[in-house]
Every structure is written in C-alpha cells, then in structure tokens.
Amino acid sequence: MVTLPCAAVLFDVDGTLVDSTPLVERAARVWAVEYGLDADEFLSGAHGRRTSDRVADFLPAERVAAATARLDALEAQRTDGITALPGVLALLTSLTGMPWALVTSMDKEQLRVRTGVAGVPLPPVAVTAEDVARGKPDPSGYLLAAGRLGVDPSACLVIEDAPAGIAAGRAAGATVLAVATSHDRAELTGAHAIVPDLTHVAAAPGGLRLTR
C-alpha cells in the first residue's frame, strides 16, 4: 500500500466520478453529422477538454459559439446511462475533515444534472467551464479550486482520468493520481500514480491510501 499525502483533493468529474460516455458519444455523433464532420475524429482526444475548446479545433471561430450550444443541447436531451463510477460514493463519504473540490470541463448545468442523476454530492467548491478562460490542459481550473479552498496547489492531490487533466494538474504543481477508467494506463504515465478505479483508494490520516 502507498499513501499519497495531501491537504485537499481536487477531483475531475466525467470519467473520474461520473460515467456519461454513452450520452456524450451519442450526442457527438448526431452533432458531427449535422456539421459535416467525422465523429470518430472529433471524439478522439476530446475527453477531459471543454466542449468549446474541442469544437474550436474543427470549426472557424465565428461558428464555435453556436456549434457548442448545439452540442450542449443534444447532450441535455437525455440522461440515461449516467452512473457513478466504482468506489466514488464510498470515497467521498470517507473524506470527513479533508476538503475537496470538483474541477470539470462541463458547464454548471451539465455538472448539476449529471452529478444529480449519478447521486454524486456537490461540494461547496466546484470549478466549471464558465469559471476559466482556458480549459485543461491549462492549469487555471485547478489553481482556482485550490485558491478557493485556501490550500496551496502543491499540497493538493488531483484525481484525473484523462491526459489533458493530468497535464493540468501537473502544471498546477499538484500531485496527480490517475484512474484508468477511460484511457489505457500507457496514456496516463504523466501521473504520479495510477489505479484501476476509486475502489483502490481510501481516506487515510494526512492523505489518501492506494491499494493496488
């Protein structure tokens, strides 16, 4: 067993705490047809990034706002298939006395809906897409969350499932734990440690304990 010391935990949401992959992929495929794009190419590398940032990779700047709104609307039409990932609720319940926050590429409404459907509680601090000028892999979201908690970023543990989020956590100066819930372990090597999912993580004095 290994214990990762920390004074606060900063969680990514989609792919780390909540699985909404079926919903996101269905919406993206409908959207891609509407905009004449290849859905597989759009989805490749999209995980962990803000919708607007990914849309901007494929469409000219003057079309990004409307196209992002359309994709958000398609995602909002259904909530079936959204679930909490293994170990999430037990870990969050165990974090008594340990401050924690959410840092997500979703907007506030998406976060409210998806965590609600999955039964994941919302903490007082949640940084969403609207709160930062640049999304992951930029560290702004993690730096903002640490600041709102009043904890130095270097004393925070970031938990992520995607390369963009891992890069953001590292750039913020935090220790990064990756969960291999959406990517192969080979894609997560930028993290300080990797576990299969959060069933392998438990609260411990002064940090989180990992079981392999």
Automatic annotation (TrEMBL):
Which InterPro entries does this one have? HAD-like_sf, HAD-like_SPP, HAD-SF_hydro_IA, HAD_sf, PGP-like_dom2
Q: Which UniProt keywords apply?
A: Hydrolase
Is this entry keyworded tRNA processing?
A: no
Molecular function GO terms recorded:
hydrolase activity
Bilayer-spanning residue ranges:
none
**Which Pfam families is this protein grouped with?**
Hydrolase (PF00702)
The protein's name in its UniProt record: HAD-IA family hydrolase
From which source organism is this entry?
Actinomadura violacea
